[in-house]
Amino acid sequence: MWEEKLKFYDQLIATNSKFKRKGKTMPYTSANGYMFTLFNKAGEIGIRLSKESGAKFKKEHRATIYKSYGAVMRDYVLVPETLYNDLDLLAAYVEESYQYVMSLKPK
Q1: Contact criterion met (CB below 8 Å) for 75 and 50
Q2: Beta strands in 43-89 (DSSP E)
Q3: Cα angle, residue 17 at apex, residues 74 and 60 outer, rounded to 5°
Q4: Cβ contact 90:84 at 8 Å
Q5: Cβ-count burial 35-65 (b if 16+ within 10 Å, e if not)
Q6: What is the pLDDT of residues 1-54, one digit of tens each?
């Protein structure tokens, strides 16, 4: 099951040539010194969004906070599996996440 979800995560990241999946045990994407997507050991996808976009995402998709290795990841939302069948929508959220971290002061 984890392997199938990882394949989906890789497929999602591959929708945009700007993104490169990193990490072997904890897959993630990063830009501007910030991670903007994560794939945890539970096989869950987290996307980093601004506070406003995160609140809207949680409300519209009945999503919750995202945890990785037991820690709450600030500014991340847990992508509900119900959205896995809408790759275009998820790709748009990943692009929004990328744009968000690019707007932050570089690390």
Answers
A1: yes
A2: 45-48, 65-68, 71-78
A3: 40
A4: yes
A5: bbbbbbeeebbbbbbbeebbeebbeebebee
A6: 899 999 999 999 999 999 999 998 899 999 999 999 999 999 999 999 999 999
* Nearest residue to 38 via CA among 53, 48, 50: 48
Q: Is the pLDDT of residue 81 over 90?
A: yes
The fraction of the chain above a pLDDT of 70, given in percent, is 100
Q: Which amino acid is residue 16, in one-letter code?
A: N
pLDDT band for position 106 (50/70/90)? very high
Number of domains in the chain: 1
Q: Are 100 and 53 in contact, with CB atoms under 8 Å apart?
A: yes
Q: Which domain holds residue 38?
A: 2-103
Q: Residue 25: its pLDDT value, please?
A: 86
Which amino acid type is present at position 103? S
CATH of the domain at 96: 3.30.1460.30
